[in-house]
Amino acid sequence: MRDMQPSPLLSDEATLHAAMLREAERVLGLLQAASARVVTAESCTGGLVASALTHFPGSSDMTEGGLVTYSNTMKKNLLGVPNEILAQHGAVSEPTVLAMARGALSVASLARLSVAISGIAGPGGGSAAKPVGLVWFVVADRLSGVARAEKQVFSGTREQIRLQAAQHALTMVAASLSAPV
Predict the structure, then answer these.
(1) What SS3 class is residue 115?
(2) pLDDT at 5 over 90
(3) Are 42 and 66 in contact (CB under 8 A)?
(4) Do the Cβ atoms of 137 and 164 come closer than 8 Å?
(5) Domain residues for 64?
(6) 5 falls within a domain
């Protein structure tokens, strides 16, 4: 019988998944301390952020919900992302994730924060201007009116890119909660 070793790829994904869950737990603690709730608007992460947040018992007190808007049609219909923004900038852009974040706050009246994510997880779909691994993020705070945007380019497999993006989104939420209002 052969000695069965986990593949390095699965090990990397397991490590990334565990790190994402640790960050989600930290975010929930910060949300609880601030008596705040969050809503997610996700594209390339396909609900990973909402899943990580709701992994923990009691998370319903801090998590308003999650919207997976993978297609442009869903971004328009659920989040109110204007056709003009999608046509001019594309789904993976700062204006789109800003509109996604604002749209999420408009449908989740109890949420103080929203986090929006759109990117290219690969393995195809990238270009010179928008490579595989490019992800845009926005965290919007209803209380302060501040919306913070960032873009990152991650490397790895499709799943590794998605896990890194989800963890980064959670880190941005934590930073928003740690910043003075």
Answers:
(1) strand
(2) no
(3) yes
(4) no
(5) 10-178
(6) no
Tally of domains within the chain: 1
At residue 176, does pLDDT exceed 60?
yes
* Residue 56 domain-assigned (yes or no): yes
In the chain, how long is the greatest CA-to-CA distance? 61
Q: What is the pLDDT of residues 136-156, one digit of tens each?
A: 999 999 999 999 999 999 999
DSSP state of 125: -
pLDDT value of position 179: 77
Provide the b/e sequence for 142-165 (b: ≥16 CB within 10 Å).
Answer: beeeebbbbebebebeebbbbbbb
Position 2 in a domain: no
**Contact predicate 42/67, CB 8 Å:** yes
High-pLDDT (> 70) share of the chain, %: 93
Task: List CB contacts of 7: < 8 A, sequence separation 6 or more.
Answer: none
- The contacts found for 142-150 with CB under 8 angstroms, 24 or more apart, are 142/105, 142/111, 142/112, 142/113, 142/114, 143/36, 143/112, 143/181, 144/181, 146/176, 147/98, 147/101, 147/102, 148/172, 148/175, 148/176, 149/94, 149/97, 149/98
CATH number of domain containing 94: 3.90.950.20
Question: How wide is the angle at C-alpha 109 spanned by C-alphas 104 and 110, nearest 5°?
Answer: 110
